[in-house]
Amino acid sequence: MEMRAYTPHKQLIGTVFQRWSMFTPLLEVCDSEGASTIRIQGSCCPSRCFSNQQFQIVSNIGEKMGSIWKKWPGFNDDYNMDHEYFGLEVPLGMESHSKLMLLAATFLLNYMFFEMS
């Protein structure tokens, strides 16, 4: 799977790619030239229900830069579980296009692991 982000003038900002991994989710964020800038690593076998999930954002040299998290909302009165809470925690000084690509990665993670319809 992959997701691309464009400017309003249809210029490519970057791409988020799913990379092969045996047991854990692994995404790679690349700039407009295709150079890898950030990796996103998840925990083993993410589950849609009954648990919170956290994905680590790391640099190419393995330095932790932040996290993407999903909070399971629990059961509500209607037993409607088709809603989640996501968060993106990154340094304040991170470049805006990197933040944009991490937001795109959050949407891709939701689609890949947590959407049921």
Automatic annotation (TrEMBL):
Organism of provenance: Pagothenia borchgrevinki
Cofactors needed by this protein, per the record, are: Ca(2+)
Family, as annotated = Belongs to the phospholipid scramblase family.
Q: Which InterPro entries match?
A: Scramblase
Q: Which Pfam families match?
A: Scramblase
Print the keywords alphabetically.
Calcium, Lipoprotein, Palmitate
Please spell out the taxonomic lineage of the organism that makes this protein.
Eukaryota, Metazoa, Chordata, Craniata, Vertebrata
Function statement: May mediate accelerated ATP-independent bidirectional transbilayer migration of phospholipids upon binding calcium ions that results in a loss of phospholipid asymmetry in the plasma membrane.
Name recorded for this polypeptide: Phospholipid scramblase
Q: Which superkingdom heads the taxonomic lineage of this protein's source? A: Eukaryota
